[in-house]
Amino acid sequence: MNTKAGPVNIALKVLFTLMYGLPILRIVQTSFTSSADVFNAQSNLFFRPTLQAYVNNLDASLFIALRQSVIIATGTTVLVLLVAVPAAYGLARVRGHVATIGLGLLVVLQTLPQTAQIIPLFQILGMWGLLDTIVGVVLANAALLAPFATLLLRPFFRSVPIALEEAGAIDGAGMFRQFASIALPIARNGILTVSSITFLLAWGEFLYSVRFLLTPANRPLSVLLAMQVSAFGIDWPGLMALAVLTSLPILAVFLLTYRLLRDGLTVGAVK
């Protein structure tokens, strides 16, 4: 069986490498190309590298957008965990119709299109005076990602042996003590995995930022990248250089948490 699966695995790896690797390679190559050589077929392989696009992008607006992205992604991650961790623990410990209804509601919330939530959220944030604020975007992102994070976290808490909590109860530990001192430390890797995924998703979020942050100067990197395309043309080297620069922080987060993501995402497949 392994001899038959080997060529298939190799073919799939080559296919996915070409599908995802070639566009990334093209983005990096274009970022080091001058505008005159972008659409020159003879310069696709042999061109004179230049850092001009990177130099042009390293200005104050880039660092302001970077700061906004860091605040939004970090704030969203913290708020999502504050909601999703106790919710996932509760769903992991209840049985019967309550768990079924709770999981069904989370699935329904997860399937709601993000575009359908724009107008209601715009009205709510307007009534609360949170339009054009980072807090408003963080709240909207947290509402979007909390159901997803809860569904991901539940298998980690279900993997915690309930006998440990029963032993804690015999020793006098209350429900909160069982949760904080027994379940949380054992499910720590799962919480870190979900934190990484939430941070990655919040970092690239675009729709809420462009709708709820009305002042262009307050928008994060994802919006700054889209603003490079205008009706007057596209500076392709500048756009690709900005794409590379905005990807570096999230690439660092991914590399630092790769082992957690690889191991943690398989938990839900068997629980």
Automatic annotation (TrEMBL):
Give GO terms for biological process.
Answer: transmembrane transport
Return the Pfam families for the record: BPD_transp_1
Which residue ranges run through the membrane?
Answer: 70-91, 103-128, 134-153, 191-214, 234-256
The membrane-topology field of this record reads: Multi-pass membrane protein
Q: Which InterPro entries match?
A: BP-dep_ABC_trans_perm, MetI-like, MetI-like_sf
Q: Where in the cell is it found?
A: Cell membrane
Q: What is this protein called?
A: Carbohydrate ABC transporter membrane protein 2 (CUT1 family)
Which organism does this sequence originate in?
A: Xylanimonas ulmi
